[in-house]
Amino acid sequence: MCPTVVVTGPVFDAEFLSGGAPPLLMEDLGTLASSLKIGAFHPDSHDAGTYTESTTTTPWTDGTTTLRIWQHSNGNPQDAIVGVSAASEPLDLKYYSNKRSTVQILHSATNAPAFEFRNPPKFQGGNRRDAHYETEEVLDSYFYHPNTGPFISTRLIQRFGVSNPSPGYVGRVAAAFRTGRFNINDGITGNDNNDNGITFGTGKYGDLESTIAAILLDPDARTPVLDADPTHGSVREPLLKVLHFLRSMEYSHSSDQFLILTSLHSRIGEMAYDQKSVFSFFLPEYGAPGPVSSAGLVSPEAFAFDTPPVVHLMKGLFSLIKFGMTNCDGGFGRGRSRCYAWAEGDYRHTMGRLTYGPLRRNNPEQMVGELDVLLTGGRLSSESRAVILDALDDDRFKDDDDDGDVDDGKLRLAQQLFAASPEFHSAHNLIRLNDNDESREHSGPAREPSAPYKVIVHIFMVGGADTFNLLVPHSGCSAAAGGTDLHEEYRLMRGNVALSKGSLHTIDASSSKQPCDTFGIHPRLPLLRELYDGDEAAFFANAGGMKKLSAKHDYRSNHGGFGLFGHGFQARVQTVNGGRGDLFGTGVLGRLADALSDDGYLTATLSTGGSGTASKASIVRGNPYSDTKTSSMGGTFGPTPFDPTPSVRSMRTIIDSMNDATDPLRSGMFGESWSAAMTKSLDDNDYFFELLNTVHPTTKFPTGTKLGSDLRFVSQMVKVRRERGVERDIFSINIGNFDSHSDTFSTHDSFFGQMNDALGAFRKEMTA
């Protein structure tokens, strides 16, 4: 491919425009005019004073062609306008820009012009032109809007370790974004002279060099004392924790292998270049249940706190430490068929392994100190340090050869305990309670169920399903709707995404108060017609996010301050019912479960949403002080044994003691959120794994779809309801992403087809 450049310059030079001789013979003005190729608007169409006709040079005429020249007020020759007409029709002017645009093809070796041709203009109609101008204006209004700087600054700060930045921090970063410059002394109290520090940025609006410099060098990002603020910091992203461990512990791959991390997004909720939505892996407005949401704060990375990603992250790190990069015991690597035959520390068949060794191997305390610097940034609490050192003082790791060296097994155990510590998973200081009575509870069945069992299974269609094509007005509409044919209205309004009558599964709605006697169901959902005809299904029409007709000036007041146009806001409206959640950010199904618990029913809620879905578990989140048992579990990577071959028999007890309850007034909220989530996740995983091994569905569920796996899991949970001690179950399942733009037919055909198959199997299993 040859390099090209576009060269622009005037056709007639400044001397000619000012009254000098034309570059061609006077008697050949037609040839002269043919050099003008780019049209121009009439000079009078511009603002007054922009163009002035040159009376000293024009009109030129040779008896056949006449030229008139209007010079631009900026004096630039190529901005001049030349009028050309036949000498016999001097008023019939055609206007041209005095501009020549040439494309030069350069020699690949010398970059000298080797060939050139005229750069042809591209003509477009007025409508397209205006659309282009209006789009540019809209983009400019977004880009230069006064809220753009603070908005982008907040989002970027969140990605660099501070989930809830202070207004001052946001303001300083936004100023760097707006001015395009940041001085290293900016924001330092008492320093008004910014000429002595390093300055970043080009001085242009929106400069990201200055913005990132402001984020990383601001006092709010660098002051160690802020680690003691319970609200400062963040939960760390799953992928960054994996990469951090690989780098700090000096991962090295085998000579014939390279690093492959398999199905990481499905396992831990995040993988580079595997984002399932344009809205990132985490919702920026998401707050973890517990102290974070109770304080009205957010913790976007806690979006991955469902049981499966938490458990699989821990399994992967433990396996990496003990067996190297394999799939043994849930490792991140590719398959190895004989994991059962390998002992911990046997790396002969691995794709790679951690090669870190302590600088001083003769002292466990020094080893823990090194790991503290490398893995927890020197923030390991005294309680965690004591737990780790106590675990290392195990007879299994005694120094058999009396050389004073730390046994390799001790190093592996220490690495595992660091990976399980809340300090590794959060970015602030932690202070545990001294009262041993405040250890975390490990719940079980409260009593034997006695009331009849009932269950709700809620399926949330993430991304906004096109339900106008799920239930369609079909026929028999005119009389009931006052003469309006609703199907024709549907067809006209929907245009090329409307479904034809012949493709729909029809149902009889004549006994209802709906405006049509017959409705149609999407062609990929025949099961719904079967259920409807058998009085097993009902449709709630005319239900959506809009409470009332609204315009720009009143839609916020009409809808409680929640936006109607963002996926995240709309998901929150649907899951927490327009923001009606109380102090704890409860959801619709969570409040329903709390009401059932208050009435004395043994109630449980469970979300199989998984990481990276819009509704998350917030819809089943209830009051944390209620008796409702809340869990999150997925079907695709369901419960599997955690650490089946522990390095020490008391591994789970040690992990639990490292993640005991923290001081609610002085300790970091994000570490507390992680500890609570991990402890509960490990408990639920072990409990459900043992329980579900006792029951197996008799129906074959669809394989390869999340909904099929989730409904299979739900069917198992229903069958062991008595063992779980439950009288009322509420399950929330997600399917999607339905966020289709130009591919609405294929998207909905696929997802509705998955729903039809999975619901059919679930119905069969529940009625077996």
UniProtKB/TrEMBL annotation:
UniProt xrefs under Pfam families: DUF1800
The source's domain of life comes to Eukaryota
The record's InterPro entries line, in alphabetical order, gives: DUF1800 (IPR014917)
Database matches in PANTHER family: BLL7424 PROTEIN (PTHR43737), DUF1501 DOMAIN-CONTAINING PROTEIN (PTHR43737:SF1)
Protein name per its UniProtKB record: Uncharacterized protein
User: Species name for this entry?
Assistant: Odontella aurita
